[in-house]
Specification:
CATH superfamily of chain A: TolB, C-terminal domain
Largest sheet of chain A: 4 strands, antiparallel
Structural class of chain B: mainly alpha
Shape of chain A: elongated
Structural class of chain A: alpha+beta
Number of strands of chain A: 25
Helix content of chain A: 10-25%
Radius of gyration of chain B: 16 Å
CATH class of chain A: Mainly Beta
Strand content of chain B: under 5%
Shape of chain B: globular
CATH topology of chain A: Neuraminidase
Number of domains of chain B: 1
Distance between the termini of chain A: 130 Å
Number of helices of chain B: 7
Strand order of the largest sheet of chain A: 3-2-1-25
Oligomer: heterodimer
């Protein structure tokens, strides 16, 4: 714009009054005034933050410890702490000191799976010659106090054959039939047990009774029948209409599930009342039923893998479990965990655990869990309890 | 237009015209440090309130209004921008005391128009936007100020 409207003398005087200058630019200072820097956190507030962080860290630590403890007590994931299996020939071998009339055979023992997957021997054949025979079935009472198993000799009757009911507190070993001359074993066993070869022993939920299947001979696939015996051996009754194997108690103790044979292709699963009434077919082509702790499901070994049915015969096999048929094509006999969430079975190359909905199949030990005459159903104990071999041995010494 | 879109233009005005802003602010406040602070705050106000610029006048005039308002608020309590006799930071020489007195005696609007015209060399449109008056009023206001100051100048000369 022209400066014609300005007074020259005023311009000169004003220039002297306020002379021009070149101030220093500081645009950042302007911006800081518009967008001020965040106010520093007061010291007290910082201290509170620090305390809060420490508290959260402590809580997380405690939660981690609690979770770890919980899973350690439960057996953790697919770890199967509390799972006991028969170990036909575990290492290390016990020293063999054959007695007259006894040889050195494979060691009979029961091992418990540890959280790290290794086995801890909880019961070992007390006889110095390791001739306790072949353990064919194992069962723990629900309170973890009673351990029952059946055994018979490899080559004819042995003095340790029969049904054993061990009280892990008093260390008493109730052996049926009671010991006597070997040549009278069959007679004694038939009189006291109903047959020479008891097998597939199972505790009732209340721990007062046991059920077992009787075989006429060790290799027989058929059975004489199923018997129920009191835990002290004083009373024994046959279950009518239950000619089969693998008895499994309903949680209320009024019914049994059983199979008519050993191989799933030629066997069916039934449910029957203890008095023999109400016999009902629940599954074709299946064997080794196992009644779940909540009573709602029966697991059994099918022709391929494991399947689940209701006590009325409705198939409730989860798709994931059915899909694992290929992976666990040849499972052993299933056993429910006490909490009813997992199933254990002796499979190829070890003992496996799978969740009931079919996920997370895992081998928990490489021990086969198979006896001389086939797989032995694993047994879960709610509270891991160990029967030290010297205690069992002492029992043996006292009674014999 | 988004408010932040004006920021680069305002920054360009700052970088090119800072000396003139500071000079006018010094004339208003009578103190260099106060003037510098007023200019910085005035530009900060312009950024904060960029959304209020309607685009009806020149942006530079609107920025001038922000700076002038800050300078007026920062002005010392005394009614006129008269510097201390011994101050060397603002008004520089005593022989012009008479002129300072007459400037201080001007109505504020006239004084602002004089400062903006002489120190910032703004045209009438920019002055009108900066002071908040009609463009046609700027010339009359300046003439009125000239009439009063001319008398003072003649008295000094005589």
């Amino acid at each position: 714009m022209s400066r014609a409207d300005l007074l020259p003398e005023l311009t000169e005087r004003l220039d002297r009054l306020v002379p021009p200058e070149a101030p220093t630019l500081d645009w950042d200072d302007v911006l800081r005034r518009v967008v001020p820097a965040p106010a520093p956190v007061p010291r007290r507030t910082r201290r509170r933050y620090r305390l809060l962080l420490v508290a959260v860290a402590l809580l997380l630590l405690l939660a981690g410890i609690a979770t770890g403890t919980y899973f350690a007590l439960r057996g953790g994931g697919n770890k199967a702490h509390g799972l006991t299996i028969f170990t036909g020939d575990p290492a290390p071998y016990a020293p063999c000191n054959p007695q007259p009339g006894f040889g050195c055979g494979p060691l009979s023992a029961i091992g418990a799976v540890q959280p790290n997957g290794r086995l801890k021997i909880v019961w070992r054949c007390p006889h110095p010659g390791n001739t306790c025979g072949n353990i064919s079935s194992i069962a723990w009472s629900r309170d973890g106090r009673g351990l029952a198993f059946t055994t018979y000799g490899f080559a004819g009757p042995g003095y340790y054959d029969g049904l054993h009911i061990i009280d892990t507190v008093t260390h008493s070993d109730l052996q049926l039939p009671r010991r006597g001359p070997a040549d009278s074993y069959t007679e004694r066993a038939t009189r006291e047990l109903g047959c020479a070869f008891p097998n597939d022993v199972a505790w009732s939920a209340d721990g007062r009774r046991l059920a077992y299947a009787c075989r006429p001979e060790p290799f027989a696939t058929s059975a004489v029948g199923i018997f129920v015996i009191s835990a002290d051996g004083s009373r024994r009754v046959a279950v009518p209409a239950a000619n089969g194997r693998f008895p499994s108690w309903s949680p209320d103790g009024t019914r049994l599930a059983f199979a008519t044979g050993t191989g799933p292709a030629h066997s069916s699963v039934y449910v029957v009342n203890l008095g023999g009434s109400g016999r009902m077919l629940v599954a074709h082509r299946g064997t080794a039923p196992a009644w779940s702790p909540d009573g709602k499901t029966i697991a059994y070994r099918a022709r391929c893998g494991l399947r689940l049915v209701t006590p009325t015969g409705g198939d409730v096999t989860p798709p994931a479990l059915a899909a694992e048929c290929g992976e666990i094509h040849d499972p052993g006999f299933p056993a429910w965990s006490p909490d009813g969430t997992r199933l254990a079975f002796a499979g190829p190359g070890g003992v496996y655990v799978v969740t009931a909905h079919g996920g997370r199949l895992a081998r928990v030990t490489r021990e086969s869990g198979r006896g001389v005459f086939g797989p032995v159903r694993p047994a879960w104990t709610p509270t891991p309890r160990f029967v030290h071999s010297h205690e069992a041995y002492a029992t043996h010494q006292r009674c014999c | 237009m988004a408010p932040h879109a004006l920021w680069p233009r305002i920054e360009a005005i700052y970088r090119s015209e800072l000396a003139r802003f500071v000079r006018v602010a010094r004339a208003i406040t009578g103190d260099r440090e106060t003037a510098l602070e007023a200019v910085q705050e005035g530009f900060a106000d312009a950024l904060r309130n960029a959304s209020q610029w309607k685009g009806s006048g020149p942006l530079e005039g609107w920025v001038w209004r922000c700076v002038i308002n800050r300078a007026r608020k920062a002005r010392p309590v005394r009614a006129t921008p008269l510097p201390d006799e011994h101050e060397t930071n603002g008004w520089v020489s005593d022989p012009d005391a008479e002129l300072r007195t007459h400037l201080a005696a001007l109505p504020e609007r006239q004084r602002l128009v004089v400062f903006l015209r002489y120190f910032a060399d703004l045209d009438y449109r920019e002055i009108a936007t900066a002071v908040g008056i009609e463009v046609g009023t700027v010339g009359a206001t300046l003439s009125a100020a000239h009439a009063k100051l001319r008398t003072a100048l003649e008295e000094v000369s005589a």
